[in-house]
């Protein structure tokens, strides 16, 4: 139990109706989850206005309500608090409710279009190998040191974030790394958190369904750095054209990393193979199992962050050489017929281009590159023709298929993808709605030495159609297809 007055500390309040000296059992933003003595925080959502559920929350036991506007009819014995921004209020109240766990452990946030999961997960691995207890909040999973929890979001809601940070403090976690998505920043899920550092990866086309313009998407990302405290570090990829912009107004100490320009942290790719790359990081050579220019950026970012967090440079580089690929990111299997199948989470035009270019850079030349790719439903439609163009341009054969159609018609998504394919590339493409069949067909087409890229779903182990998720795993499917072809 906490006192409402205490958890409202630092919330921007307009008006109060009733007493704030009341006990609060939990901070809840969904009326369907209200229990006795909870405080209900009403938020205007994307689909509905949470203020419509205030009375329902009270019926279920809420004794206090936080809202942006008062309901016409206020109930006796209930405290109503009007705030400027319910999302921000929810986040600050969640931090206060759990006694501000982000102030009790160094918390580092990673933001940008691509590379967040990779960087956060590699930092988790690195600090574990250096002997620390570590926390991770990522698209793939949540880890409280070695205890794993499922997650539904890249950046969970603020109550969930703080409850896990609290668990981490309890478990004696020394460092926590988290992904900070643009939805998360915009919906104030990370408001009120005390960050020890922020990392910017890159910015390219994504989520233009939600943010409407690229400038808005970029500005939202920047507000994360604007909000960092003076004591934090702000580390940016200065090769990215928005890298400098991100740090323009931050109070944090600024650092940069780059492969192409002058920066505080520099790296160079010396050798590229399928089995790994040889990098030079701040003048020291290091072999890594991770491949691709984009991973050189990711590794440089984790090297820099580790140094800024106080790890010893040589120890960091030794550990970097032992880091494993993150699940669903360039994970590959080789069949008995010597066909390499790569599963990768590339679901943006930039990521797909990077992965295909990495493969084309390393391959010997005479083998075929077959790409299987789809685009998600209820997500940015403008990505679709671009991704299809990139796939068909950079592969010898491309099979368009479905990837979480959600509430959209899967064939209509494929049609929108196909619209981006040039007449010249069209003959190299095929569309197979069923992802299982698409993977099977790619395997049937392939011959000794060929490479198959299955893009878009990475670690995901489901296909989502109309709100129902059924088990589906790209890596599992490709292994099954290879086995069937052996018979
Ligand atoms: C578009 C989006 O981000 N939506 C998020 C948002 O939902 P919403 O605004 O639609 O909520 P709503 O249904 O309109 O409801 C408004 C309010 O009324 C409340 N309500 C609603 C119904 C009711 O009966 N009672 C009630 O109290 C809701 O709890 C909510 O507080 O707030 C919800 C609660 O926090 C989130 O779960 C939900 O994420 C949805 C499921 C989602 O798919 N989000 C994706 C796009 C997302 O956030 N992705 C990013 C990663 C993107 C990336 O970088 O790749 C992420 O961080 O995961
Ligand atoms: N630094 C990078 N620059 C460009 N592309 C990258 C980078 N790192 C990874 N990628 C590509 O983007 C894909 C997604 O990577 P990752 O999961 O790390 O990104 P993310 O930012 O966490 O994505 P999400 O927004 O879905 O959480 C990878 O599978 C790879 O194809
Ligand atoms: N975090 C991203 C993941 C996209 C992955 C892709 N498989 C899809 O479903 O579109 C999103 O929710 O937009
Ligand atoms: Mg992620």
TrEMBL record:
Residues bound to ATP: 112-118
Pathway the protein acts in: Cell wall biogenesis; peptidoglycan biosynthesis
Cofactor(s) listed in the protein's UniProt record: Mg(2+)
Subcellular location: Cytoplasm
Residue(s) carrying N6-carboxylysine: 221
Domain Mur ligase N-terminal catalytic: 25-97
Recorded superkingdom: Bacteria
Positions of the Mur ligase central domain: 110-305
List of residues binding UDP-N-acetyl-alpha-D-muramoyl-L-alanyl-D-glutamate: 31, 154-155, 181, 187, 189
GO biological-process terms attached to the record: cell division; cell wall organization; peptidoglycan biosynthetic process; regulation of cell shape
GO MF terms, alphabetically ordered: ATP binding; magnesium ion binding; UDP-N-acetylmuramoylalanyl-D-glutamate-2,6-diaminopimelate ligase activity
Keywords: ATP-binding, Cell cycle, Cell division, Cell shape, Cell wall biogenesis/degradation, Cytoplasm, Ligase, Magnesium, Nucleotide-binding, Peptidoglycan synthesis
Domain Mur ligase C-terminal: start-end pairs: 328-458
EC number: 6.3.2.13
Main function: Catalyzes the addition of meso-diaminopimelic acid to the nucleotide precursor UDP-N-acetylmuramoyl-L-alanyl-D-glutamate (UMAG) in the biosynthesis of bacterial cell-wall peptidoglycan.
Similarity field: Belongs to the MurCDEF family. MurE subfamily.
Protein name as catalogued: UDP-N-acetylmuramoyl-L-alanyl-D-glutamate--2,6-diaminopimelate ligase
Lineage: Bacteria, Pseudomonadati, Bacteroidota, Flavobacteriia, Flavobacteriales
